[in-house]
UniProtKB/TrEMBL annotation:
This is Acyl-CoA dehydrogenase. Signal peptide: none annotated. InterPro entries: Acyl-CoA_dehydrogenase, Acyl-CoA_Oxase/DH_mid-dom, Acyl-CoA_Oxase/DH_mid-dom_sf, AcylCoA_DH/oxidase_NM_dom_sf. SUPFAM superfamilies: Acyl-CoA dehydrogenase NM domain-like (SSF56645). It comes from Brevibacterium pityocampae.
Length: 376
């Protein structure tokens, strides 16, 4: 790979961190420890947290897909799975390669484009036609092979600038196929990883809040500054409680037998997204332009976090939460897995509205069933 001249220092610092990285895999009983570590790393430096989270996710993904041990301590992995219509990265079978596949084309939005040594990438194995959808698969690729090039000038961002998330070109580069797109997307670990990203957002928000907390602790702090600090502390406390509860949710049902993991993950992501945006807003309103103009590290954190949380799909994700609850309730209702039946339902079916109400409560973590034997 063609590297930028300034990459050696950053690569060395990251390599040192990655060699000592030991995080519990999600869904194995230590999920909150994993997310706490990611949050702390991101509070220290948002870009570092983002890059290490991707490497840790690559370990979890390869383990889920039966390739445990593929990610080694002396490597740095990215996960490059964005699938916009263009540019296009394609994969084709090649009998002349031991891996059996080669990659050709361009992958956009590759965090750590000139820093990573390896990556998990999605690539199109068959383009869409009028008669059939595109087919996409997941591949592991060594980025230090001939034919890999990080494209300069394709990441002109201010926020997350140091994440080096530009385009990468592949010219018939050997790669190992790990599975189809569904193998990557439809495993519970996909959503475990999605909440891990939200833990990073939480860490970034805690770092952005630091100057507000410091100012509010001064003896001469104004009531307005203290009010904003109290509100931010309450938001962060609620966000962390949500992550703790979700970690327990994941560890109790790692294989998603309840079928609500996607809705739960999107609930966490949308809430932490809005919390982080609110922290940025309140810190700015409380402290004014001073820290943004005179404290370069704080200004960069604000810019970085603002870009990072836009990995959500905002209201589209929130709409998906409700759609998932309804769809799951319909499946459960058709299978008759709810207690009781409702008007108009035949034998062996359940009232979908009753099931949906129960699913909402499971998602929220609250049982709204009326207590028996008590006064109203």
């Amino acid at each position: 790979m063609t590297a930028h001249p300034t990459d050696s220092t950053a690569r060395g610092e990251l390599a040192t961190r990655l060699r000592t990285l030991t995080l519990p895999l999600p869904g194995r009983g230590g999920t909150i420890r994993r997310w706490e570590h990611l949050a702390r790393l991101t509070a220290e430096d948002i870009v570092t947290g983002r890059l290490i989270e991707a490497h840790a996710d690559a370990i979890a993904i390869t383990t889920d897909l039966g390739a445990s041990g593929l990610v080694t301590a002396d490597s740095h992995w990215g996960v490059w799975a964005a699938e916009p219509p263009r540019p296009l990265l394609t994969a084709s079978e090649s009998s002349g390669q031991p891996s059996g596949w080669v990659l050709h084309g361009t992958k956009p939005w590759c965090s750590g484009a000139s820093l990573c040594t390896h990556a998990l990438v999605t690539a199109t194995t068959r383009e869409r036609t009028p008669d059939s959808p595109a087919e996409v698969a997941l591949f592991a690729v060594d980025l230090w092979q001939t034919g890999v090039r990080a494209v300069p000038g394709t990441w002109p961002a201010v926020g997350m600038a140091a994440s080096d998330s530009g385009w990468v070109e592949f010219d018939d580069v050997p790669a190992r196929r790990l599975g189809g797109h569904a193998d990557y997307l439809e495993r519970p670990g996909f959503w475990h990883g999605g909440v891990g990203v939200a833990a990073c957002w939480f860490g970034g928000a805690r770092a952005v809040a630091a100057p507000l907390f410091e100012r509010a602790a001064r003896a001469n702090a104004s009531p307005l500054v203290r009010a904003h600090a109290g509100a931010v502390a309450a938001e962060l406390a609620a966000g962390w409680s949500l992550l703790e509860h979700t970690a327990a949710f994941v560890d109790a049902d790692p294989d998603d037998e309840r079928g609500l993991l996607m809705a739960r993950a999107l609930t966490v992501r949308t809430r932490i997204d809005r919390m982080a945006a609110g922290v940025i807003d309140r810190v700015g309103r409380a402290l004014g332009a001073g820290p943004l103009c005179s404290d370069g590290e704080h200004a960069q954190r604000v810019a970085d976090l603002g870009v990072y949380i836009r990995q959500t799909h905002a209201e589209a994700d929130e709409a998906t939460i409700a759609a998932e609850v309804r769809a799951h309730a319909e499946r459960a209702g058709a299978a008759g897995t709810s207690t009781g039946t409702g008007p108009g339902n035949g034998p062996g079916t359940a009232d979908v509205d009753v099931v949906a109400a129960a699913h909402w409560d499971t998602l929220i973590g609250f049982d709204s069933t009326p207590l028996r034997g008590t006064d109203d």
